[in-house]
Design a protein that fits this description.
Layout (H helix, E strand, L loop, with lengths): L35 E5 L6 H15 L2 E6 L6 H20 L1 H14 L7 E8 L4 E10 L10 H11 L5 E6 L6 H17 L3 E7 L3 H9 L5 E4 L5 H15 L5 H11 L3 H11 L7 H14 L1 H10 L2 H12 L10 H14 L2 E2 L6 E2 L2 H10 L27 H5 L30 E6 L5 H15 L2 E6 L6 H11 L1 H8 L1 H14 L7 E10 L3 E10 L10 H15 L3 E6 L6 H17 L3 E7 L3 H9 L14 E5 L4 H14 L6 H11 L3 H14 L8 H14 L1 H9 L3 H11 L5 E2 L7 H13 L3 E3 L3 E4 L2 H14 L29
Parallel strand pairs: 1-6, 1-7, 2-5, 5-6, 10-15, 10-16, 11-14, 14-15
Antiparallel strand pairs: 3-4, 4-12, 8-9, 12-13, 17-19, 18-19
Helix pairs in contact: 2-3, 3-4, 4-5, 5-6, 6-27, 7-8, 8-9, 8-10, 9-10, 12-13, 12-14, 18-19, 19-20, 20-21, 21-22, 23-24, 24-25, 24-26, 25-26, 26-30, 28-29, 28-30
Amino acid sequence: MSQVFGTPRLPAHAVARTDRLGRAVTLAPVLPERRAILFTGPPGAGKTRELDHAAELAERHGWTAIRVEASAREPLEHRFTRAIGADLGKLRREFGGFRVRKLRRAVRDLTQRQRKVQHGAEVRIGGGPVQFVTKKQWDATPLDNLGTTLHDVADRLGELSPDRPVLLMVDNVDAASPYDLAGLSELAEHLQNSGRPVWLVAAGGTMTTSRLLAASQRMPFELRELAPLSDPELTSLLTVPLDRAGIPYEQAGVSSLVRSANGDPGRLRTLADTALSPDGITAGGAAAAIERVHSRSAVLYQARWDKSTNPQKAVLAAVAAGVPLADIPGQWQQLDEARQELVARGLIRETTDQPTVTDPGMHSWLNKTLAQPAPQIPSLASTSSLEASAAGPGWTAGRVLGTTRAPSYTVDRKDGEGRAISLDQRVPGGTTVLFTGEPGMGKSRELDRAQGLAAREGWIAVRVEASSREPLENRLIRAISQDLDTVREHFGAGAARTLKKDLDQLAGRTRRPQAGNEVRVGVPGAFQVVAKEQHESEEPDEVGSTLNELADRLGAISAAKGEPLLLMVDNLDNASDRDLVALTELSARLEQNRQPVFLIAAGSNQTTSRLLEASGGQAGIETDVVTRFDLRKLEPFTDAELRPALAEPLRQAAVPHTPEAVDHLVQAANGNPARLRALATTALDLADPTTGLTTPVAHQATTRHNESSRPLYEAAWHNCTPAEKSLLAQAAQTTTGIPLPPATTSRWPVESAATRPLTQGLLRATPTHLTLADPGLRTYLQTRLTHATPQPTNHPTPTTNGRPTPKTPDRSTHLTR
């Protein structure tokens, strides 16, 4: 292989990568406000090269960079442990051993496993040739070692260099398990909220977004999608190295290679290496090289075809022949899923009208193999003509709108009766408060306000986030243990000591005592025959404490001082059924105790149903525990309620704006404050320093935001079952929504199919209709369904017992970033 053009990891000439909107993708020296960045794209798009660039950037500026690669063979924590452990010597030389000791301890604890220890005792009777021995042994491991998490390691790294960034880089995220994906999402959320100078930079394929959403139900990453290179960019990858090496070339030959590469720099490098000869690159040599590469790749094309499912083969054949996907017989939901999987594999590429085969060689092979006429591959036009104008000085979203957790203007929420929803404005009506609502409605913000109230009043507030990675008890134990100093300050050393003992018992393992008997015959020290028996003891196991006993202890120490204590649990959608059972039991105990300990939780609209089921335990028949919750549902804003959330920050920051522009963005947000913030952020990036936020800028911002959200829309669509896709397809055809059938058997399949889309914020329900919650999703679906799928049927049809059969269990997605 020639070294004229370099290697994929070390190209002789590189171009600054952009996305489909022309925005820079490559990480710049000024790191983004979002603490987690995810590079996505099909195979060969250059995602690993972007991580290489980030590592080079860190080295040039003296930043700390830790890089690992996700694996299906071992947890991500293990790989981070080894990577950080290998760098401890360097960190010790840079920051000193004393400052690195906390990091070293955190790395050690990250994968520490408690060894099983047993103690025993025995009694021997007799000193002659015959001895009788009775003994007992028991499990002496006092408690499980809950260890630490990646959060703690990231915090220790941030403490080492508070003035310099730290990059945690993860490549090949596609290989990670759902457990690791959930951990990455939680780490990204933690880094954003902690404010420490630690950034998570990851890279994965096109389907990584879907898998992250399914694993964690959130998308805390800033998505940077690597678009195919344009013809001028590909041309420079060839001509610049050739000019440097003094190698002649014919422009016709270069153009031929660029067209055949079709936006793929890796394919271009293969073609150019094949075409390079002592005479340089000629038109004839380029044509011969293209033919040779296609011929050599035939075995790979065959393997890709053999690996494809029947629906994928149908889509591939149709795309290669130029046949509209709507004309393919079969269930359109399966064909649509196959289309998305082919895009993820890099075999086809989405265009405005009809997908195209990415590799012209495979395009020709398909038509030749399938004996179909080979139509011309449509030329790839620029995907966007949107150009951002320079924003005015200081017109950043952070300065104008504030942060997500601390907005510059707060809109006070009201319920249907006009009562305040926030706890700092209305005291709880019971010992358990549950905030529910669509994604992006501000549930976590309500917990922030409650936490702020506790801080102002000097109360203790313990906050955790439910997770699919570990039980809720573990997170509460760790959170309270880390706050024992505060408990000591508030309630005294005795209360803290007793609480620590309760925490140890809560994590206590079930001991398994054993007993046994022995008979020894022979001369001690010479020869003995031993007969023995060992069995589990009939004594009851010690099973430790539960959250209920912990609630009793917290209630006792709070009541003694007359000071409230808040236990807050966010993101209940990620909680397991076991965690929800524990939560309902804890709520019942708090109500029974009537002490100043309050449970404050937040989840989606369907959380209430899950808690009702959990309250019945194994039977699943709900009790009345949840009915005694103080339920506070965050409904979508009206345009009038949401308008001040944008107009007031613009006025306070002296940003010129027109009422029509604000109205357009508010209407595009459709009552969702998180979506309004995203739209306003894009608009401020586009706004002219002189004219500010105008109506054309607002329209342009909406178009750009919808286009940049396309990976999220695709991920949400991919994670839907066929019945859910049918429902979303119907909702996309109208702005008024799908009228719900009468309360007969025809209504139940619709409600069943709508359950998860409602939870995930894809659909919004009224008493009579179902509508799409995001207008941008409607635009995306209308474009996708018009060009690629036949019109959907009226309503999803149940398969068994009136319930649709899911494609995969409990795949969840949220569109709000």
